[in-house]
């Protein structure tokens, strides 16, 4: 799905939302290069809602730090919702967080493995009453590398709240 320039998330409101809902976040970032964690960390109080941040580019780092299966990478590729889901789940399992967001994709400027620049796969994982709830999406953003990274960061944070609301409504 092609998306226009992402709307910038109100980071202070996001930190307040995470605090109010007792959400403690871990990030598992590839193509966003740690910008999600950095964005939240730039806001006063951001450290109170951040548990950890993983920046993992290589397949071996994804496997070693987050438990992503090499079979999943081989079958679906690094830019896949399946890999993003395993990254998010691994971040939850390796931390004290109760929510995780993961990104993997091709920021550009060139395609990689026949995947168009701007393609980003996301996953959000929530631990609720001992159960893990996973959500994932793939979007294609327009713009140069830095624009794609920024848009993906805002999208990851904006959708976190939406998916959390879905978890609460069940």
In short:
This protein is an alpha/beta fold. The chain contains 6 helices and 6 strands; from the N terminus they run βαβαβαααβββα. Strand 2, helix 2 and strand 3 form a beta-alpha-beta unit.
Give a verbal description of the structure.
This protein is α/β, with parallel strands linked by helices and 170 residues long. Helix content is 41%, strand content 25%. The chain has six helices and six strands. A six-stranded mixed sheet has the order 1-6-5-4-2-3, with helices on both faces.
Structure keywords:
170 residues; alpha/beta; six-stranded mixed beta sheet
Backbone CA Rg: 15 Å
N-to-C span: 27 Å
- Strands, count: 6
Q: Which range best describes the helical content: under 10%, 10-25%, 25-40%, 40-55%, 55-70% or over 70%?
A: 40-55%
Spatial ordering of strands, largest sheet: 1-6-5-4-2-3
Sheet bearing the most strands, described?
6 strands, mixed
SSE-based structural type: alpha/beta
Shape: globular
Q: What is the N-to-C order of secondary-structure elements (H for helix, E for strand)? A: EHEHEHHHEEEH
Identify low-pLDDT runs. 1-6
Residues in β-strands, percent: 15-25%
Mean of the pLDDT scores? Answer: 94
Number of helices: 6
Could you give the topology of this structure?
Layout: E1 2-3, H1 11-20, E2 25-29, H2 35-41, E3 50-55, H3 59-66, H4 70-76, H5 81-93, E4 99-106, E5 119-128, E6 131-141, H6 145-169
Parallel strand pairs: 1-6, 2-3, 2-4
Antiparallel strand pairs: 4-5, 5-6
Protein name: CinA family protein
InterPro entries: CinA-like_C (IPR036653), CinA_C (IPR008136)
Pfam family, one: CinA
């Amino acid at each position: 799905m092609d998306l226009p320039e992402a709307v910038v998330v109100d980071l202070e409101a996001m930190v307040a939302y995470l605090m109010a809902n007792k959400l403690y976040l871990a990030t598992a970032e590839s193509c966003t290069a740690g910008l999600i964690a950095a964005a939240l960390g730039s806001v006063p109080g951001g450290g109170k809602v951040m548990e950890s941040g993983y920046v993992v580019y290589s397949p071996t780092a994804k496997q070693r730090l987050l438990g992503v299966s090499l079979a999943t990478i081989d079958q679906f590729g690094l830019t896949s919702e399946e890999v993003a889901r395993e990254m998010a789940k691994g971040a939850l399992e390796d931390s004290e967080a109760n929510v995780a967001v993961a990104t993997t994709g091709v920021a550009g400027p060139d395609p990689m493995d026949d995947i168009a620049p701007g393609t980003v796969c996301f996953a959000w994982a929530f631990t609720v009453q001992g159960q893990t709830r996973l959500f994932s999406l793939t979007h294609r953003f327009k713009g140069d590398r830095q624009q794609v990274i920024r848009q993906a960061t805002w999208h990851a944070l904006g959708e976190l709240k939406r998916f959390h609301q879905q978890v609460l409504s069940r």
